[in-house]
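## retry 2 of 3
previous attempt timed out at serialization; input unchanged, resubmitting
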Amino acid sequence: MKFISTRGRAPSLSFADTVLTGLASDGGLYVPENLPRFSREEIAEMAGLSYQELAFRIMWPFVAEDLSEAEMRGIIERAYATFRHDAIAPLVQTAHNEWVMELFQGPTLAFKDFALQFLGQLLDLLLKKRGEKVVVLGATSGDTGSAAIEGCRHCDNIDIFILHPHNRVSEVQRKQMTTVLSDNVFNIALEGNFDDCQNMVKASFTDQSFLPDGRRLVAVNSINWARIMAQIVYYFHAALSLGAPYRAVNFSVPTGNFGDIFAGYLARGMGLPINQLVIATNANDILHRCISANDHTPKPLVHSLSPSMDIMVSSNFERLLFDLYDRNGLAIAELLADRSAPLKLDESALDKARTLFSSERVADERTVEVIREVFEATGYLLDPHTAIGVEAARRARRSSAEPMVCLATAHPAKFSEAVDKALPGTQVPLPQHMQDLMQREERLQVLDNELSAVHDFIARSLA
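## retry succeeded, writing output
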């Protein structure tokens, strides 16, 4: 299988080269040239499979030309061996035909573990086969960083640098990153917001001259195709558990960088019956404004109770735009030439998006109320991101006859501020393996919001 750039000017690549390249040379993102599709009968045969076997079935068409079956199965087994729940992504019912899919059973308590434990194992294998050593560079609004570090900390051929916005992630999120003291792990607290971190990562991929000879950058942000691919699996997992392919199953997704919900869009393209995907946003609502009012105007970033969604430039939205514009890479390059400028979609493209996607914006005050209301009704505790997903689903839902699955993207213990506002005095204990997190030694570097400062730090650290 070949992978092509959303901007139409970069060469097509194999799966392995796509994973190791990240951002395309023309500034675009890689997507499969053709999406594999399963028949209704093939999907029905997947019912009852373990999560690991399902992951192999879903991802194998993408990787078959670059990995052996044994290699792929080994990567999957190692990636999910550290998850605390045998179901990997268990479902919990919270209302009539409404379900929460717990995506926080991995080692860092967030949905990013599904992709990044897999990606770490994949990178390790590919680099060993090639005899290559790389630099992983990523930006995080809170959860990607810890999951990437956990996935890469034991890799002999990787040095990993993660940028997070200084004082704009939760204390648990920060500690999960900065208390990993491995020699190949470097945490940078940037005096800026997440979009500043993300822009620095993109600029670094464009000009890698600051790296020592023989090194290159590899992306772990969701611009890396392997991350999106791994997330497709849990849509199949949930839908099969609730009656697919014999009935449609819909999803509500707390959304910042659009990667998680784009995986649901791909699952639908691969044959899964999905009639609605709900884009759930907080005050940083550029995607909601785009879908609901064709208003894609950037606004100042707001610091919210759901910090993993405090994003104004949603990188993976470009992958959807590529399809909405009939895979015309030159049109996408022109449309996104200036991401800081207001953007309006062609009405035909917007109409296509609206057939599948709905969107809602949920304010902090309502987020807190939803946490309290769901807990009082069911005894189930939501984190603030998941609460936004539940509220958005209840507002936007088109059919009460079709199951709605809300993606629970993080463990509530990571966001004690929001939980305490909803349920004062409630203590949410961390899982056993993280009980001493707050007492662990930290290591991080606070840097000015300047690209040269970041590049100098990386160069010094590698030297």
